[in-house]
Amino acid sequence: MEIRPSRYDHPDAVALDALVQQEYARRYGDDGDITPLTPEMFTPPHGAYLIAYAGTRPLATGGWRRQEDAAEGYSVGDAEIKRMFVLPEARGRGLARRILAALEADARAAGRSRMVLETGTKQPEALELYASSGYVMVEKFGLYRCHEDSRCMAKSLVEPA
Alpha-carbon distance 41 to 82, whole Å? Predict the structure, then answer.
């Protein structure tokens, strides 16, 4: 497996994003994640977007974007994870964990101090991944902060002194 930086509008990213939207719709019974995202949000130094490949086949994806909108509950220095997804047939190989670690390292290198994310109660495997990776529940933020199924988590990117 190889993890490569990509643009959010790359054809492989677009294809994987369509699949993650179907997954959200299947689990939550709606139109998927309606968070407005643009390719520029994932362009360094404001963010990054990664795709994991087996040869030329894209298997998994994830990105982070700079997010500091206090009105939506973010803090200065936040990096928000978006579009973490692994194809069903590629799950259980540690791809999500590898992408997550790469996103954290990239956000830290870009000077971000905290990684944040929003997931939901109908994604228990995501909640387990993040908790086992050091994320803790925090006060809700972002577009879905008023949704009952929403869960927000965070992890410090600052090394203890």
Answer: 11
What's the number of CA atoms in the CB half-sphere (13 Å) around residue 87? 14
| One-letter amino acid for residue 66 of the chain | R
Q: How many helices (H) and strands (E) are present in the chain, helices listed first? A: 3, 7
pLDDT in tens, the chain (161 residues): 899 999 999 999 999 999 999 998 899 887 777 888 999 999 999 999 999 999 999 999 999 999 998 888 889 999 999 999 999 999 999 999 999 999 999 999 999 999 999 998 999 999 999 999 999 999 888 777 777 888 999 999 998 76
Burial of 98 (0-12, 13-18, 19+ CB in 10 A): middle
Cα 22 to chain centroid distance, Å, stands at 16
Q: Could you tell me the pTM of the whole model?
A: 0.94
Interaxial angle between packed helices 95-109 and 124-132, expressed in degrees from 0 to 180 and rounded to the nearest 10: 50
